[in-house]
Amino acid sequence: MIEEAPRIQRQGVMRPAAALVAALRGTPTGFLVDALGGTGALDYRIKPAIADQAGFCGVALTCDAGPADNLALIAALESIEPGDVIVCATGRYTGCAVTGDLVLGMARNCGAVGFVTDGCVRDLPGIRAVGLPCYCIGVTPNSPARSGPGTVGFPVTLAGHPVASGDVVIADLDGVVVVPRLKLDEVIARLPAIRTAEAAMDQAVRDGLRLPKFK
Q: What is the pLDDT of residue 144?
């Protein structure tokens, strides 16, 4: 491992069964929010850095880099398993980027399927070339330090929203939703009724519905 002790604390990840993750893949984030009772989305400002590279579904691997640093993110690379989404907390720091194309390319090479931060990123042309969907709060060319401290695997707060390693993270053009690992069965059970109701309303609108109908 990289020379990090005692600056980085690590905790193991309890990942959900692959079948549970697969059951959520391709589900619109709005459906997931409905299944969660109207919540679960991250801050509206966290959007894809590259608009045409939006969307993923994977297991959260959290790291807390803190402001103006990315040692914890670098350390997280060694903990990635295929299908993971790196969730990097910066305390909403926007004075510099927490990562650019090179680290995101390494994350992709390790098997990551997405990256989410409440901070900024840089190197947009390179990020486009890497092709790893990257959600952030902004873009700046300023660069971070790499001195720590930080954590990998511990619960984090991302722009006010709690995220734990092992949660499932789903993103599309609307934003990012986090489904807690312990609620996966419940959410999956609710989705068929939500899909059916949405399909019925879509058809009703296409058929000329002008006002919503309430029971």
A: 96
Q: Tell me how many degrees the CA angle 77-183-170 measures, rounded to the nearest 5.
A: 45
Yes or no: say if 116 and 87 are a contact pair by the CB < 8 Å rule.
yes
User: Comparing 51-60, 96-105, 193-202, which segment has the lowest mean pLDDT?
Assistant: 193-202
Which residues of the chain form beta strands (DSSP E)? 8-10, 47-48, 56-64, 84-89, 97-99, 114-117, 120-121, 134-136, 138-139, 150-152, 156-158, 161-163, 168-172, 175-179
pLDDT score at 213: 76
CATH code for the part of the protein at 8-206: 3.50.30.40
pLDDT in tens, 173-187: 999 999 999 999 999
What single DSSP character describes residue 41?
A: B
pLDDT over 70, % of the chain? 96
Beta bridge partners of residue 59, listed in sequence order: 84, 168
Contact status, residue 122 vs residue 141, Cβ threshold 8 Å: yes
Helix (H) or strand (E) holding 210: none
Main-chain phi, psi angles of 93, to 5 degrees: -75, 130
With beta carbons less than 8 A apart as the criterion, state whether 86 and 115 touch: yes
The domains of the chain are located at 8-206
Which class for 93: exposed (0-12), middle (13-18), buried (19 or more C-beta within 10 A)? buried
What average pLDDT score do residues 92-97 get? Answer: 97
